[in-house]
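Example 3.2
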Amino acid sequence: MCNLYSNTMAVDAMRQLFAVDAAQDALGNAEPLPAIFPKGMAPIVGMNDDGKRWLQNVHWGFVMPQVSKKTGEPIQPRAVNNARDDKLRSSSFWRKSFEERRCLIPATSFCEAKDRIRRATCGSA
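Structure, written as tokens:
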């Protein structure tokens, strides 16, 4: 997944597109999100054990606690969000989430950095 994406789709449109019953929508009157970064909140589509889809806002990325090398005190956690497809089943870090907690991420556009000069490849859904 890219490190910057957007979701400017209306909640009603997301419910219709992903076949989510209004009773399973926890987004409420969510605003469009023109810029979503790691550690931010964003909507996802998941599925209950009974096969019904739901919508809710979640924290984007796997938060990894960190401590300062100088003081040993907790510092701002790091968000990990890029998984290589060849590591999903073999890595203990990704395997359980890939097998048990998969979801859909509604996005209307995305942008991925190409190099350190801030060039980017962008697209829209």
